Amino acid sequence: MEDRMDDQTSLPPASSSLAAQRDPDRNLGSAERLGSAAGGSLLLLWGLRRGGLAGDLASAIAAGLLWRAATGDCPVKRAVAPSPLERRIAREQGWLSAAAATHAIVIDRPRQEIYRFWRDFSNLPRFMRHIVSIDVINDRRSRWTVKAPLGRLVEWIAHVVDDVPGERIAWEAEATADVPNHGQVEFHDAPDSTGTVVTATIAYQPPLGQAGRLLARLSREEPARQMAEDLRELKRYLEAGAAEIPLSPV
């Protein structure tokens, strides 16, 4: 299944042109495109006059600015622009920004079995590659050690905030965490009555704001990619070795 992102609509930025609002391939307003055109033209003239390595570099940057002006699309802006889901979570949590994703997958195992496996948080490092370890403190609290971009390790204490056996688990980092975050997973019977639809959502406040979101994307550590890969690994793990999986009672 594809990522299921929040479909809530929101008003476009005031700087966006009507054309940019109508065309999803454009994310620049009229003023931004005019600025890129002017800046690109001046930089191109300077580069052609300067010549040499500096001139070539300036001309290459100018070409990018002129392409940006002509198409109305900026890949960098698109990369750091928050999704509707991320805007909603940042607003609800009082964060400056949020990195978040929702993904769903069908796993050919009973719903209660998958719930029990996930409810024992010490199982999560088996299929979530960015989690180094989770030490369960008690039924509600656990200590997480997670790999961050650039090879850093971060730790926090998480506590369960919602637990409906066989249906839903939600958790969040305690207030002392360096990286505020929360997650939720839901379990539903698949429409054809074979297997379970597992829908997981993760969100955190990037330490560097929008720059942190871009860094995560450039290092291939953005939530959407991680969640999709993790759920595919969970599917392989449970469907291939279900008979050997220890399921802790809850």
Briefly characterize the structure.
With 250 residues, the chain is of the alpha+beta class. The protein is 40% helix and 23% strand. It is built from eight helices and seven strands; from the N terminus they run αααααβαββββββαα.
**Unreliable stretches:** 1-22, 242-250
User: Strand count, sense and closure of the main sheet?
Assistant: 7 strands, antiparallel
Strand percentage: 15-25%
- Global shape: elongated
Radius of gyration: 22 Å
The CATH superfamily of the largest domain is known as START domain
Annotated CATH topology of the largest domain: Alpha-D-Glucose-1,6-Bisphosphate, Chain A, domain 4
The level of helicity is: 25-40%
Total strands: 7
Q: Helix/strand-derived class?
A: alpha+beta
Q: Which CATH architecture of the largest domain would you pick?
A: 2-Layer Sandwich
On the 0 to 100 scale, the average pLDDT is 78
Order of helices and strands: HHHHHEHEEEEEEHH
**Major beta sheet, strand line-up:** 1-7-6-5-4-3-2
Query: What is the count of helical runs?
Result: 8
Number of domains: 2
CATH top level of the largest domain is: Alpha Beta
Can you lay out the helices and strands and say which pair or pack?
Layout: H1 18-22, H2 30-50, H3 52-71, H4 75-80, H5 84-93, E1 99-107, H6 111-119, E2 131-136, E3 141-147, E4 153-164, E5 168-173, E6 181-189, E7 196-204, H7 210-218, H8 223-241
Antiparallel strand pairs: 1-7, 2-3, 3-4, 4-5, 5-6, 6-7
